[in-house]
C-alpha cells in the first residue's frame, strides 16, 4: 500500500484506526509497573518493649560496665532513656570514635564557658 510506504519513508506513525488500536495494544502489553524493591532500605526488626527486657538490659549494662548501682538514678542516665524511648525509628548508636569526639567537643565548650565565667577585668 502506498500509504504505508509513505509512512515508512517519512518516519511517520500511521493514524489509521486499525493501526492505532494495534499500537495501543502493543503499548499496553509492554506496560508493567516497576517495583521500588531496589530503592527500599530494609529496617531492622524491632523487638517489642517489655519492662522485664528493660530491667535485664539495665542490669546487664551495670554488670558489663562495672557501674555503681546508683547510675540508674542519675539524671543523665534517665535523660538518655527518655531520648531513646521517644524515637520512632531504629536508633543507631555511635561508635567509640564518634563518642570520644562528642565528649571532647563538650569538654572544650564547657572550658570556654568557664573561661568567660572566671575572666577578670585587668582594669580595676
Automatic annotation (TrEMBL):
Top-level lineage group: Eukaryota
Name the UniProt record assigns to this protein: Uncharacterized protein
Organism the protein comes from: Rhodocollybia butyracea
